[in-house]
Amino acid sequence: MSVRPILVYGDPRLEAVNAPVEIFDQELEVLVDDMFETGWRAPGLGLAAPQVGVNLRLATVDLSVGKDSDQKIVLANPEIIETSGKISLEEGCLSFPGLFTTILRPRELVISAQDLAGAPLELEASGLLAQAICHEIDHLDGRLLVNHLRGIKKKMFLRRVAKMRKTGVWSA
Ligand SMILES: [Zn+2]
């Protein structure tokens, strides 16, 4: 396993089109292992493949951040099937290091996806897990935190981004 560099906002790969995962081979297993390792080290609750520069519809989620292997979730080609309720939640992103904003998310959702072996799976989630999954699926659609914001809120967020860049807190 190795830690890969996480791309920060501004890198075009974060907003590029992500191709479906079609080949479930050893190379994919290595990528997934690296994504978990990279997420744990960051630390973060999840990671999407485009964040490590791989434009595939693939994400990892681990709310335990490496403490409990039963909580490791691999989502290949995830799709939201159903959502219910809305909740405003504070959210950060490893591609916007140090920044947080509030975003409207579904309270509960059902998704379909494929696991690391390509087998279909269906998952119901609520709370933090639902939020993390939504966040990662957004990445696979090239949708970033900033794309959820409008008007003055967006302007202020982008000002904070510019400040982060200037102070060198963002290494990339
Ligand atoms: Zn993110």
Characterize the structure shown.
- This protein is of the alpha+beta class and 172 residues long.
- It has a single domain, classed as Alpha-Beta Complex (Peptide Deformylase).
- It is 27% helix and 26% strand.
- It has three helices and seven strands, in the order H-E-E-E-E-E-E-E-H-H.
- The strands form two sheets. Strands 1-2-3-6-7 form a five-stranded antiparallel beta sheet, sandwiched between helices. The chain has a two-stranded antiparallel sheet with strand order 4-5.
- The model has no long low-confidence stretch (mean pLDDT 96).
- Zinc ion (ZN) binds next to helix 2.
Layout of secondary structure:
Blueprint: H1 26-41, E1 46-48, E2 58-61, E3 73-84, E4 87-92, E5 100-105, E6 108-114, E7 120-126, H2 127-140, H3 151-167
Antiparallel strand pairs: 1-2, 2-3, 3-6, 4-5, 6-7
Bound molecules: zinc ion (ZN).
The site of zinc ion has 5 residues, from α2.
Looking at this protein, list some descriptive labels.
3 helices, Peptide Deformylase, alpha+beta, five-stranded antiparallel beta sheet, globular, two-stranded antiparallel sheet, about 170 residues, binds zinc ion
Within the largest sheet, what's the order of strands? 1-2-3-6-7
Can you write the helix and strand succession as a string?
Answer: HEEEEEEEHH
Count of DSSP-assigned helices: 3
Average pLDDT, rounded to a whole number, is: 96
What do we call the CATH topology? Answer: Peptide Deformylase
Summarize the entry for a quick read.
With 172 residues, the chain is α+β, with helices and mostly antiparallel strands. Helices cover 27% and strands 26% of the residues.
